[in-house]
Structure formats: structure tokens, C-alpha cells
């Protein structure tokens, strides 16, 4: 009787063990799992339009950090290979080709030229490798070409509107900022790269928000400074020579250009001793937050690099595991878009960021 009971228990244990094994997914490439623990390496290629861009490099850092966190949590080997397109679409196309031939699971692309996405889409689709675009939004027609395309970004209109609201708050609180008392705000605006959705829409919506707040505006000058600090400084220096004290507001499509403008203003004796001019940017990069705390930059708008990096990684990770991102990642709309909200940043709340 006793012996029988032991045999029963033993065979139940055996049965349970074999069930456990049977349920295990086969390892990739048909390799036997070593000690039952080997997991498939996940390879995510990240093609950036260029490394030398303050905001983009912070998105890259965020993707790496979040990947490391995931890897620690799950014990998986996750490779993030970020490559520098150096502002050349042809270079970026080659880099994507290499990811494809090397069998990457997913490719994340920050287009050099956002209107040129169809070339990359075609190749990725032929190879069956999903693509997560970010920061430079492909046109809707391209995004509709395949159901394995995603986009992570932020609504450019929203950043423009917030920027305009920060400016409106300043002019409401400081009636003397209308220096020539003509009832209009004389402004200059430093624009990002022509054709970039963030440049076009920030320019348009910042002014719309000022007008919606009841202000009349008078544009003294606008020009592209290609998102870059040095160009921002150069353009601003020229405008100071041309318009001097007539300038009542400086808007910039991003913080790097705003910081360039601040250099030019400081060099011309502005921003101290009662010669303050509000300069407002977008991004809330680390140097911009320092400038804000130092009382130079008046305001900015958080372009959430960490939030975007997390969105890009989470979608790519789900795709690499053959899961449906729309079920795994909160907030995906139309089955393929993930919009990360902007937030107003001024001296009052900068410590929160
Ligand atoms: C950022 C800029 C950046 C650009 C690059 C924008 O969203 O605000 O700082 O240079 O993206 O594409
Ligand atoms: Ca005025």
C-alpha cells in the first residue's frame, strides 16, 4: 500500500515536470535552451538623423537607459545599436540596409528627410522587419503603406500653443514690455529646419496663441537657424544690429537656437540691468533649464525625451517579441501613433523637470 502511494506521487511529479517542458517555447534558431534559460537576443537598430543634436542625443540616451532597465528586469540580452546619419539621407538608407541584412528584429528611424520614408518602408516590408519612426513624422500616405509601421512623437501644434501662452503671460504681467507703446508685440523668430513639422507648426501656433490671448503682433524678422545654437546666435546678432531696442520678444523653435540668441543678446548688453527681453524656446534640455534658473531664458516647453524614448523602446520591444504594441503600450492611437504630451516650463516649475 505504502509503495503504491509513493509510485503515485512520483509519477505525478514526473507528469508535472514533463508538462512544464512541453509548454516551453522553442528557443530561436532552433537552438536548445541551455539549462532551460537561454532567451533569444533582441536586436533593435536605431538610425538617428544625426548625433550632433542636443534633443536627439537625449532621446538616444533615454532609449539606452530604458533598454538596460528592461534587460535587468527580464534577464534578456537586448542590443540597441544607434547609428549616426550625419544629416545625409543616403547614409541613413545604407545604415538601414545594414540593419536589414544583419537580421535586426526592429528598426527605429529618425528620418533625415521625413518625406523620403517610402524607400525605407519598402525595404523593411520586403524583409518583414517592423519600423518605429520618431521625431520626424513621415507623411500619412507613407504611414499607411504597411501595418507594421509606428510613429512616436509629440503634437507640434501643442508646443507652439504653449510657447505663445508663456509669451502672453509675460506681456500681461509686464505692460511695459511693449516698449514703444504701440499696442503690438514686435517679435523675431528663429525657425528650425524648413519642412520639419515642428518648425512649421511651432511658428504658426505660437503666434496664433498670442493673438488668441488678445495681443496684436508685428513680425520684425524670421529665418531658419536649422535647430542650431551657433546659427541662432549669428542670426540674432544681425537682428540686434538691425532692430536693436525695437525687439520686444524672441521666439525660437527649439532651446539650442534660443540659447544662441541669448549669447547674442548678452554680448549686446541685454538681459541685465533692466534690459530684459523674453526669449522662449522648446525642449527643456539641460542647458536650457540652467539658463532658465539663471534668469536668462524666460521659458520653454518640455519636449519629453524620456517619454518618447520609452515609447520607442516599448513599441520596439513588443514588436521584437511578436506582440501587438497596441495591446502592450498605453496610448497608441489609430493603431500606430503614440503622442507624448508637451508641458510648460518656467522659473516657477522648472525644478519639477
Ligand atoms: C526638437 C529639436 C530638434 C529636432 C530634431 C525637435 O523636436 O525640438 O530640438 O533639433 O526635433 O529633429
Ligand atoms: Ca510694441
UniProtKB/TrEMBL annotation:
Domain Periplasmic binding protein, residue spans: 44-323
Keywords of this entry: Calcium, Metal-binding, Periplasm, Signal, Sugar transport, Transport
Extent of the signal sequence: 1-22
Broad class of where this protein is predominantly found: other
Compartment(s) where it occurs, according to its Swiss-Prot or TrEMBL record: Cell envelope
A cellular component annotation (GO) from this entry: outer membrane-bounded periplasmic space
GO MF annotation list: carbohydrate binding; metal ion binding
Tagged with keyword Cell membrane: no
Pfam families, per the entry: Peripla_BP_4
Oligomer and partners: The ABC transporter complex is composed of one ATP-binding protein (MglA), two transmembrane proteins (MglC) and a solute-binding protein (MglB).
Full protein name: D-galactose/methyl-galactoside binding periplasmic protein MglB
Organism: Sebaldella termitidis (strain ATCC 33386 / NCTC 11300)
